[in-house]
Request: fold
Amino acid sequence: MSKEIVITIVILLSIILLNVWVGKYVDGKLNHVLDSLSELRSLIEEQKYNEAIAISNKREDLINQMKKQKGIPQGYIDQQLSYLYIKQAYLYAQLGILQKASTHFEKFSATRYSKHKAAHIDITAYRLAMKQYKQIIDYYQKTDLTELTADTISQEFIGILSNLSEAHRGMNDFQKVLQYQQR
Reply:
């Protein structure tokens, strides 16, 4: 199971546990937060970026409503906003709206959760969409790749190699592209 799937499961479980812990819905809309997360993922996979942005804006409204509720841990809000901002940055980058993409990436970078090592997956997707190939290569060169995954036979590690291959393709370093494709 990839780390991204595990993180998604943890986020979904935390939403459910939070609902039980708080003991009430946020203005009756906590289910909408959960639904919007699922819908957002589906729209991104289907490359329906404009629709995904509309859903992410609604999700942001719901998260802001949650921020006003008592008893909801700030770490949870930070994690939800972090995920939202990096997805928005990616979506705007895919649509070529680069200023908005950069603005949302800055918002993402201001969250505590953005410093978590698991965030590299979404950061890399954003950087690929922005054609920031050198930043991807620099990041992975200074990082022990085995620290980012459970093992080197995982789908996540294969994804890292694929991302590096794509970044080197963007830099026209085809020898490195071949090197990462053969690993």
Remarks:
- The CA atoms of residues 92 and 98 lie 6 Å apart.
